[in-house]
Amino acid sequence: MVDRTPDEVFTAINNVRGWWSGEIEGGTSELGDEFTYRYQDFHLSRQRVAESVPGERVVWLVVEGGPHFVEDRTEWKGTSIRFELSEKDAGTEVRFTHLGLVPEYECFDACSDAWGSYINGSLRSLITGNGRPSDE
């Protein structure tokens, strides 16, 4: 839960450079946009904005790549990174799911921890006006 409107949260999610560390190339906010994300030697992936419904939902399809600290660097390929927004009395509920990131994957624990840091740390900070990309 954050004390902002769904539209404000939607805008923050689409401002990937405002809450992800590392290098980002390409558009991140329009349906069909593709962007690459590189974090040092640990991660390289390309995402496509597969769904974009203002104030309601953002879905990125991982087109290629993923973490580089695992044997299978394609574990993320074909997975979906999903943000569902719903207005509640106190603001907006953000439901995050990385569909296809399963416990059987080598990166599951580390990736789950990193997502937790990004969602509950840097994204929350950006939404509430203190934006800073996480170093996780």
Describe this structure in words.
With 136 residues, this protein is α+β, with helices and mostly antiparallel strands. Helix content is 21%, strand content 37%. It has 2 helices and 6 strands, in the order αββββββα. It has helices at residues 6-14, 108-127; strands at 23-26, 34-39, 43-53, 57-67, 80-88, 91-99. Strands 1-2-3-4-5-6 form a 6-stranded antiparallel beta sheet, covered by helices on one side. β5 and β6 (91-99) form a beta hairpin. It is globular and about 45 Å long. 25% of the residues are buried.
What is the strand and helix layout of this fold?
Blueprint: H1 6-14, E1 23-26, E2 34-39, E3 43-53, E4 57-67, E5 80-88, E6 91-99, H2 108-127
Antiparallel strand pairs: 1-2, 2-3, 3-4, 4-5, 5-6
Feature tags:
alpha+beta, 21% helix, 37% strand, 136 residues
Helix content: 10-25%
Largest sheet: 6 strands, antiparallel
The count of strands amounts to 6
Query: In order across it, which strands form the biggest sheet?
Result: 1-2-3-4-5-6
User: What percent strand?
Assistant: 35-45%
**Class by alpha and beta content:** alpha+beta
- Rg on CA atoms, Å: 14 Å
Q: What distance lies between the first and last C-alpha atoms, to the nearest angstrom?
A: 22 Å
- Kindly state the mean pLDDT as a whole number? 93
Low-confidence stretches: none
Question: How does the overall form come out from the CA principal axes?
Answer: globular
Order of secondary-structure elements: HEEEEEEH
Q: Tally the helices: what do you get?
A: 2
